[in-house]
Amino acid sequence: MHGAVRELEPLDAAACDAIVAGLPEWFGNEQGIRDCALAVRSHAGLVATDETGFLRWTHARARGVAEITRMAVQATSRRRGIGRSLLGALSDRRQEEQVHRSDVKTLSERAAYAPYAETRAFYLANGFEPVAELDIWDEDNPAVLLRRSL
User: Fold this and answer.
1) Distance between CA atoms of residues 15 and 46, nearest Å
2) How many other β-carbons are positioned within 10 Å of the β-carbon of residue 112?
3) Range of 21's domain?
4) pLDDT band at 126 (very low <50, low <70, confident <90, very high)
C-alpha cells in the first residue's frame, strides 16, 4: 500500500459522508451525494488512514482500465499530498491487477465553474491528460474525460 492509505471498508462510510458534506462546492447535487454514500458502502476503494480523503473506482478488466468514480479530500486537508497518495496507491494496486490506465470524468472547463478548475488542475498535475469532451450528464454539466497511462 502507498503512504498513509489503506483499503476502504464499510466502517469508513460515515467519515466519507462527512468529507462530502464539507465540500458543497463539489458535492452540491443531492442525487450525487446519495450515489456517493452508496458507493463508499458497497464498492472497492481507498481511504487515507487518518480518514481525510477517499477514492472509489471501478475496474474494467477486459479493457485494462480503472475508472475513478469518486474522490474527495477534506477541505482543511487539501494540498498536503493526500490526493496524490490516493492516486499513487491506486496506481500501485492497478499495476498488480494488469490495469494499464486510469480514467476520470469531471466537470469540463466549458461549465466555467471555478471549483472544478482546481479539480482539473489537480489531475493534470498528476499526469492525467484530457482525452475528450463529453455530454453525458446535462447541458449545465459538460464533462471532460481525463486519462493517465500506468
Assistant:
1) 13
2) 9
3) 5-149
4) very high
Nearby residues of 86 by Cβ (< 8 Å), 6 or more positions away: 5, 46, 48, 53, 54, 55, 71, 73
Look at the chain and report how many structural domains it folds into: 1
**b/e map of 39-78 (b: 16 or more CB within 10 Å)?**
bbbeeebbbbeeebbbbbbebeeeeebbbbbbbbbbeebb
Segment 32-91, tens digit of pLDDT? 777 777 777 777 789 998 888 999 888 776 678 888 888 999 888 888 889 999 998 888
CATH of the domain at 100: 3.40.630.30
- Classify residue 131 by its DSSP letter: E
Return mean pLDDT, the chain.
84
> How many other C-beta atoms are found inside a 10 Å radius of the C-beta of residue 94?
19
